[in-house]
Amino acid sequence: MKTFLYNIGYFFKETGRIIRLNILSNIFSIIGTGLILFLLGLVITGSDIGNHLVNMLNEEAEINGYFTKDISDSDRNELVEKIGKIYGVRSARLVNEDEAKKKMEDILGEEAKILELFKENPFEAFVEIRINVDEMENILDNVKNMKGIEYVRDNREVLEKIKDITYAFKVLGYLLIAAVGITTLIILSHMIRQGIYNNREQINTLRLLGSPGAFIGFPYVLTGILLTLLGGILAALSVVLLINTAYEGIGSTVLFLPLPSKNDLIDKMIILIPSLSFILGLMGSLFGLSSIRKK
Amino acid sequence: MIISENVSLIYPDKTQALFDVNLEIKPGELVYITGPSGSGKTSFLKLLMGMEFPTSGSLSVLGETINKSNYGNIQKLRRKIGPVFQEFKLIQGRTALENVMMGMRFLGIKPKLMKEQAHEALEKVGLGHKKYSKVENLSWGESQRVAIARAVARKPLLILADEPTGNLDYDNAINILKLLKSFREEDITVIITTHATHLINNEKDAMFINVYKGRITAERKGLAV
């Protein structure tokens, strides 16, 4: 440890020298790693926006329960309260006949005039149940079998789609993160091996002078971390630039799209991508070193 | 210090470099290993450095047994040795001072002291004025001196110099030998291989090991024993 502390300056100098020794190749490595991490940033951003969208839709996921004709007002209220307590129900609310009509008028817009053709309000009261999509089956079973419920409108197809989209986003995200991680590790460990090969005479001399392996290897680990970190910073800046541009474009053209907070997304990318690049850099360098050591 | 008992060395291509080497070298001795090229001098130094391992017999250097299973300790042993390689093994693109310091960085010496020791060593070998010169710009003799400075700056217990006079003119060769011998005053054991016996014929206080076709005969002169 003492030796490492005494040589901090030397390690950084060596790192600079290793990078300069093969400057062009290292610049391309930074750009390559940056591009890969940029892709990863895009996937994470897309996944974040998708998840936000799905969560929003999830929160809006609802089923409607219609009452039997003979039910009294007090029984209706009691039933609504009971439904609200079922596991997976976010909220249950009674929508009376007038509100049901108002809702339909809102949906129909200018076409709502058609409702004036009815002498009496044709709409029935119902219970509006907001649910957690994952618990849909259980909730449907429970509500359908309740005394006082005639039938349930469940929008099952839409809700199933929401579930599928959430799952697909997650799987895609994990696959891409794994692919990017492995690619970065391969590029980096190759870079480190190349660096070691270029400096093989110096390394051999240091070994003959009794230098510990960790002392010889440390500048290469630093090199790996630094190159990947630079790639990570490059990627983070590009992703931030893209998020800013995209939000300006989407914000003004697709107003109804419920996007997550731009600042939260940018903060996340600024922390996540460089941190990830640091970890990948460290792992790649150690992997490259260990594969050389075996020989 | 160094105890060799029935040591033989056979290379993987079946070349037998050394046969039944038996000798003991005590601390502070000056040792010349002589013999024609290809006789086994460098092979013996390689064994002492742990760069090769005895095929049979036992060899102990500064208390460490030289064999494959003891490799971890051999790295530690190397830190107590000041090697002067035949081809110098200086690191190109660095100054003489950086090269000398490179051999000391992992010894746990404080940076200030390390720099002082490196400067001192370069002054001792007469290269104080060239410490900031890149080693590729130095002459053969100067490079040899940098290699010696790197070896002694580490304050080793043992200096192993492989053909330090090769490729040098007579005056430079004598000066290098004088320099190496001077470290004996600091209680460092100095082992020098050379095929230029005419340079050491008049030596009166040293151990002479003659190697011929891998076989060794040793003789002590003067007070060294």
UniProtKB/TrEMBL annotation, chain A:
Ranges where the FtsX extracellular domain occurs: 62-152
Subcellular location: Cell membrane
Native source species: Herbinix hemicellulosilytica
Function of the molecule: Part of the ABC transporter FtsEX involved in asymmetric cellular division facilitating the initiation of sporulation.
Protein known as: Cell division protein FtsX
Family: Belongs to the ABC-4 integral membrane protein family. FtsX subfamily.
A biological process from GO: cell division
Domain of life: Bacteria
Keywords noted in UniProt: Cell cycle, Cell division, Cell membrane, Membrane, Transmembrane, Transmembrane helix
TM annotation in the entry: 21-44, 171-192, 213-243, 269-289
Phylogenetic lineage: Bacteria, Bacillati, Bacillota, Clostridia, Lachnospirales
Primary location: membrane
Cell division listed as a keyword: yes
Classification via InterPro entries: FtsX, FtsX_ECD
GO cellular component: plasma membrane
From TrEMBL, chain B:
Gene Ontology MF, one: ATP hydrolysis activity
UniProtKB keywords: ATP-binding, Nucleotide-binding, Transport
Domain of life: Bacteria
ABC transporter domain sequence ranges: 2-225
InterPro entries: AAA+_ATPase, ABC_transporter-like_ATP-bd, ABC_transpr_LolD-like, MacB-like_ATP-bd, P-loop_NTPase
One cellular-component annotation, GO: plasma membrane
SMART domains on file: AAA
Pfam family, one: ABC_tran
Alphabetized PROSITE patterns for the sequence: ABC_TRANSPORTER_2
Entry similarity comment: Belongs to the ABC transporter superfamily.
Record-given protein name: ABC transporter domain-containing protein
The species this protein was found in: Herbinix hemicellulosilytica
